[in-house]
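Structure ticket #2291
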Amino acid sequence: MQKRNIDFLALFLLMLTTGVFWGTWFTLTRKLETFSAPEFIHIGQTIISNVAVPMRIILPSCIVFMFISLWMANNKKSGAFKTGILSFVLVIAVLLVTLILLVPIDNQIRDWTEATVPSNWTDLRSTWNTFHTLRTWMSLTAFGFYSYFLITPSNNE
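Resolution: structure written out below.
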């Protein structure tokens, strides 16, 4: 594949990843504390069932294509390349926050019912909210940095 196609795929996959996190944060997470337990369970389980499988493909593919794109960069000593590397590191951090901190909470929520919701569900919701917000902003920053890397002339010389 040509470098331009690799760059496009990496950016497209990063946009999809960022969009999933941004959309959830922008539309729901900012008001998460206002949801009752049944509302939270229903919304949480719906989101989990909708994104679990696609994100297992999209995020790792994004990381692979970003790596290849950076590997193929023309000017590895430029400031733009360093911005691309920082973006890549942030996406790895996004993956780690997701797998280490958020998925374990998701796995608990997936099994809850109104009758079995734990007494500390608001604490878990708050923890999930904090790390989802962190992940969202890391992803947005990564998208901005990677976009800058791609549009900077030193990457295309």
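Closing remark: Residues 3-156 form one domain.
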